[in-house]
């Protein structure tokens, strides 16, 4: 399979730049993967596709304000840092721009010295390991100095940090939001539970590897970055019970999907635990746990559109995307949603 097999034309004006005021008023394209039929709805109608005994899996990771703008000590050059992964207490793997100004030994000051970073070494793919020094609590300083790490295709400034956060975000650690979850409100989640749907919370800290473009012509040569995930006993039991009783497991977003598929054994049985996953799901993959998926519209030639194609078939997915373009749906992180049942 070639990367170009997952390409589609997208007019730039369909890339959503701002979140909608009312989360659940996004549009919802429903794709029936058995028939290939497509229908158009509003996101709040998602409840019609969930039934008693089903298990809805949500990713409760919390995005950290991981984008830091600082000055290189000695020259005053502007340097931008994106926190990707905590390696140990005060040492982080980061993405640095411009990289040529961030050689080992360089020191960067943030917030007039509230936080200082020293480049320790150059890691894989040019990422930098940085040791931070500060007084006080790192998370509080980051909250004060950091900005939300919005994807590069969003050029508008985000007015409210919470709009790049799900209403159920709990465990800090993501460099990007699990965006399919942005459509849910507290009210909608209550309504879903009142229908007898079980909600299982899992955690996967989203790294930027999820959004890195696939550069290899042959998709099997693409390497996924590892991401930390955790599933507790309660979530594992809810998911296993749904499978055992013949109900569906519906994942909210590709991150929830990758979490349960990474943690399951060959028979689709989940055990509580944590670890790192590099799972890459593309057509030909046999899903062990997930039956249905709620997701946003993804970038052409991305690993995410490949995952969706593994579930619903490449031709059907690309046809649904063409329909979404014709119908002027909003695309990507702040865009509309898709339900594949």
Structural features, described:
The chain is α/β, with parallel strands linked by helices and 341 residues long. The chain has two domains: 3-63 and 160-340, QueA-like (3-Layer(aba) Sandwich), CATH 3.40.1780; 67-145, Thrombin, subunit H. Helices cover 18% and strands 28% of the residues. It is built from six helices and 17 strands. It has helices at 138-145, 186-194, 233-244, 253-263, 303-312, 314-326, and strands spanning 27-31, 38-42, 55-59, 61-63, 67-72, 78-88, 91-97, 107-110, 115-122, 128-134, 171-174, 198-204, 227-231, 249-252, 273-277, 292-296, 337-340. The chain has a nine-stranded mixed beta sheet. Strands 5-6-7-10-9-8 form a six-stranded antiparallel β-barrel. A two-stranded parallel ribbon has the order 4-11. Strand 9 and strand 10 (128-134) form a beta hairpin. Helix 5 (303-312) packs across helix 6 (314-326). The longest helix is centred in the C-terminal third of the chain and has 13 residues, at 314-326. The protein starts with 26 loop residues before the first strand and ends with a strand. The model has no long low-confidence stretch (mean pLDDT 95).
